[in-house]
Amino acid sequence: MRENFSGVHWMLATPFFDNENLDLKSMSTLATKAEEFGCTGIVALGVTGEVAKLTDNERTQISETVISSAKNIPITLGTSGGSSFTVINRSIEAQKLGAAAVMVSAPPMLKPNDDALLTFYEKLGNSIDIPIVVQDYPETTGVHMSLSFIENLVERVPSALYLKLEDPPTPNKISSIRQRIGDRMEIFGGLGGVYLLDELARGSAGAMTGFAYPEILISVCELMNNSSRDEAEAIFYKYLPLILFEGQSGIGISIRKAALHLRGFISSPKVRFPGANIDPNTQSELESLITKLNL
């Protein structure tokens, strides 16, 4: 069953205390803030949520906390893993906990091939009753999803209703996908929202990203939907420097957490080791940029 997913889904960071223990109170705060901002939905347990650094028990705790804290918007849970067995079991648990959808990227494969990947998603689709958000993120998976693969995926896996597209240049790929499959799959941008404006113009349904100021992206989406491109551009380009600053490779998670901490949403900007925590110079630059933007 297709949810009304169009809009901005906030990818939640995973808050930790300074000692790296899980901070569920801050996790709950992020979920409630997503509702207050008017986000269409929430995504938890994604790559930028440091999911690879979580225990299985912590994954469950986070899922339960987010679902119980944000009752009025759909929650998508990341259930990616290294095997069909793992992903299916995680997805079944997510469904039982009340997730509206699961987000799954391609598993690591020594020799990626479309047939194996199609079977992977087909097995998942046959095992759960909620939609799949297919994450196309070759930078982290090493797997490129071709246009023919996506076309076959839509044919063979009816529950693969959504695509989280993070394979630049994303606007071009959106146009190509639309030409191949029409609107049979809703496409969402990611990558911090850096290509959001052009993605929307090419036919995306919105964004699934963890940018620390989701209300900005929501405004851009709403204005584009109302055919107010000039106003959307004015907002987008005003805040683009912050989007770019937050998206710096290697330290983006630490910058995002620092921004969330400055907003009072999380108790600490701690990133679990061996992830990099923000350094004093970058912290100062972030604070200066936020001040200049009157945020």
Q: Can I get a quick summary?
A:
With 295 residues, the chain is of the alpha/beta class. The protein has helices spanning 24-37, 56-69, 84-97, 114-125, 138-141, 147-156, 170-181, 196-202, 214-225, 229-246, 252-262, 280-292; strands spanning 7-11, 41-44, 75-78, 101-105, 132-136, 162-165, 186-189, 206-209. It has one domain: Alpha-Beta Barrel (TIM Barrel).
Keywords:
alpha/beta; 12 helices; single chain; TIM Barrel; 295 residues
What does this structure look like?
With 295 residues, the protein is an alpha/beta fold. The protein has one domain (7-226): Aldolase class I (TIM Barrel), CATH 3.20.20.70. It is built from twelve helices and eight strands. It has helices spanning 24-37, 56-69, 84-97, 114-125, 138-141, 147-156, 170-181, 196-202, 214-225, 229-246, 252-262, 280-292, and strands spanning 7-11, 41-44, 75-78, 101-105, 132-136, 162-165, 186-189, 206-209. Strands 1-2-3-4-5-6-7-8 form an eight-stranded parallel β-barrel, surrounded by five helices. The mean pLDDT is 97.
SSE layout and pairings?
Blueprint: E1 7-11, H1 24-37, E2 41-44, H2 56-69, E3 75-78, H3 84-97, E4 101-105, H4 114-125, E5 132-136, H5 138-141, H6 147-156, E6 162-165, H7 170-181, E7 186-189, H8 196-202, E8 206-209, H9 214-225, H10 229-246, H11 252-262, H12 280-292
Parallel strand pairs: 1-2, 1-8, 2-3, 3-4, 4-5, 5-6, 6-7, 7-8
